[in-house]
Batch of 2 targets.
Target 1
Amino acid sequence: MSDLIQRVDTNGVATLVLSRASAYNSLSLPLMEALIVEFDAINDDMSVRAVIIKGDGKGFCAGHDLKEMLESGEEAFYECTFNTCSQMMQRIVSLSIPVIAQVHGVATAAGCQLVASCDLAYAAESARFGTPGVNIGLFCSTPMVALSRAVSQKHSMELLLTGGLIDASRAEQIGLINQVVSNDALDKHVLAVASLIASKSRKTLAIGKSAFYKQKEQSLEDAYVTCSKIMTENIMLDDAKEGIDAFISKRKPEWQHC
């Protein structure tokens, strides 16, 4: 495991801690590469059924490592950085289990993109969000991809064009995060949500997450065709049969994750 990421597994929940506290967990190229490695490992780990991403130190993630990028000055390095970031964000969406962002402090630029890419997000009252690239002459174009898919057009454009920060309450209002939690209760709350998800069938979670993102890009008619087929395939699985029988028998299901 990279020293840039700490991983702690608890009862089916894998917590990944971004560990560049001195740089507000900015997404250096090595950190993004390390995250991709962790996501791939988790995808193959049948004991994990939910993932939490959080930041060490004073903030969640301040975006790309601008110092690293300025020191390079090479177009090839910039291209590699942005492509790797895009691959990493897409890994979150394609991961077979839910990913939860646990946000404290700042989540800006690619850090805000990371929040928007996760399936769920919870934030401390003190959290702040933004895409301030326009302030330094570098429009947040790749963060825009995730942001514009998470919140409405006008809310996305306001963040992107003004470069301003919004507080956690506003982030909840526009749908960037699920809920604001008190600073002291954030760890406990997010772990409780993740643990609840982890109590489900991993196979069912994978089917549902994949179906959600697939149908989201389709027309209403095509989405119903797709999801009707998926539900038919789902109900034929062992875990669906077990779950239905357990419900009828008023007992706790024993998942085989298949």
Target 2
Amino acid sequence: MAVPHDVADLGLAQAGVRRIDWAERAMPALRRIRERFADQRPLAGVRIAACMHVTAETANALCTLRAGGADIALAASNPLSTQDDTAAALVAEYGVSVYARAGMDQVSYDRNLATVLEGSPHILLDDGCDLVNIVHRERPELLPGITGGCEQTTTGVIRLRQMGAEGVLQLPMVAVNDTATKRMFDNRYGTGQSTIDGIMRATNAMLAGRTLVVAGFGYCGRGLAERARGMGARVIVTEVDPVKALDAVMQGYTVLPMEQAAAEGDVLVTVTGNRDVIRAEHLAQLKDGAVLANSGHFDVEIDLNALESLAVEVRREVRPQTDEYVLADGRRIVLLAEGRLLNLGAAEGHPAAVMDTSFSVQALTVAWLVDNSDDLTPGVLDVPDPIDVDVAQLELDALGVGIDTLTPQQEDYLHSWRV
């Protein structure tokens, strides 16, 4: 009998298995960790509640945790990213309780988040801080039984740090997003490629010779700008941080305030983790046919209410995940993936090779949380450096890449002030 679940169709399970197996081919580091976990069983008896994108890559991560002995309940972190066949396979073939359907409404989304917490979890795996928020606001009785958790998005870490600053965070939460490997692979290379993929799938538009505006020049924005420039686009960057803006200038990008950039952009993509990055005053400057997209976690970076109020007509689904808003002056504004996370709403998210690194860090961090539960205090914690190094070495081994090691003399030199 299948584990408890709420998925679209268990009949899709075999298609999901094929999708999961295909992704697994590009996830060698996670595969080695799974073998290690199967042998050592570091998560035996541990209950995990997860709010994550229900994709083949996530499935491989959860199968690794299952190999370590964990019992897992999963809810979707975005209704547009759920792969119904992957959800079915996780339930029918891999013993993971999944509560997710592609395109589900907000009521179902909230219900599923509540459901995965009903098992009184020991560990939270969050993607946007939703589970942590619910536990603190609505289910505080669960807090004493929770060892801690992991947060894998910039948006979620921002929320956690604010909770910590206000003294309300009552759990040890590890900022998986902030590791060097996660920022390099997931945020920079992953978001850069998968966002371009989402734009191309949704619009079939050519980027060469067009102007693409990147709002935010963090790791995600930097990766997107690099890849857009590689496609032949002219790239404009908008920023609020003088240091990041200077970095963009020194890398050869045009840096403008959004009010000016909006008038020049053919495609505008927000990747900030903040809200109202593109507002009514910016919408008023847009060209006819301008494309709006968001690769930040939540659908608040573009002011959708302002866009709706300015429109005299909305043409839904002119292409898959592409809506067209017609303004009073006849200008047409194109919105991709409902303003939600573009790279998962209109594409398939990061390549499996990218998620191999991120999920390897997360798997090892979960085991570390369990092993060190008695010594942890509430707050936002960094991933221990040895985990980051371990994962990087696993990836290099999988690629067949060798590196140098320090000689004893070099070690001594680096640890002494006497020369």
